[in-house]
């Protein structure tokens, strides 16, 4: 990883981990990078690429790797330093902006997307590529998405849009129709383990291996498991679901802990782990021929996702939401 620490603050930054703009070591997506560069060399690089895949697997890192290659020219080192610091004149990184009162906005707004017009105007006389990285498109609000669509419909010469997308369902179909889709797979556990070793994340070798196995191919997920108590939460959930009868004392204790003020990350990790288990159980039931059970688990997954979205939007009691989930989950028995 690069030892440069110049990139602007970002809403999803992890302490001690290089941002995608700073990270000059792409792992697991070398074939995707080769595909994009081959299209460039052949003169058939489409103006907009949709980089799709689960969150945290390296889509933004790939986008910045492409930018370094296309903008490097005769002075690749200087271009890389400019990209890392967010100061390269031919690169615009559209992401959630800092809020006026601290923190970051919850969406990418139309004001951010309008920067594209100024960006392309001020770089119009440059014969190099002009690259816009949208990171991620999932965060675009409706007006911002429509503004981006307008630019994609009439792209400037030698422009390249690299659009990060975690959940295809959150993307306007009209945006997708104007892009080439490059689907990125989750990273294999050995690759994740190697990245954790390179980052020197403080953890035992066994815990790094366990985090890599549980993170579903996401570097970000593995780091969160190790640094935010996620691995301990996973182990406690393992024990709770392995018990022959529901252990409500342990469930209550877990719900109490992860819903305390200041423990929002722990709550999010618990929720992610619960839904991952629900999805895995549904898949296992389907593969083993338990069609009715698989259908019930799928229905419960959808109902619970909607219930949590609504509950969090209206700031309902998080502890009660978790306890209700465990009740509904344990009530789902039978073939």
Outline the structure in words.
There is one protein chain. The chain is 53% helix and 7% strand. Helix 1 packs parallel to helix 2 (59-71) and helix 9 crosses helix 10. Mean pLDDT is 92; it is low at 1-6. It has a 5-stranded parallel β-sheet with strand order 2-3-4-1-5, with helices on both faces. It has 335 residues and is α/β, with parallel strands linked by helices.
Short description:
Helices cover 53% and strands 7% of the residues. It is α/β, with parallel strands linked by helices. It folds into 2 domains: 30-183, Rossmann fold (3-Layer(aba) Sandwich), CATH 3.40.50; 228-331.
Keywords:
alpha/beta, Rossmann fold, 2 domains, five-stranded parallel beta sheet, 15 helices, disordered N terminus, P-loop_NTPase
The ordered string of helix (H) and strand (E) elements is HEHHEHHEHEHEHHHHHHHH
CATH topology of the largest domain: Rossmann fold
Number of domains: 2
Record field, number of beta strands: 5
Low-confidence stretches: 1-6
GO biological process, one term: DNA-templated DNA replication
Pfam families: DNA_pol3_delta2 (PF13177)
Organism: Aureimonas endophytica
InterPro entries: DNA_Rep/Repair_Clamp_Loader (IPR050238), P-loop_NTPase (IPR027417)
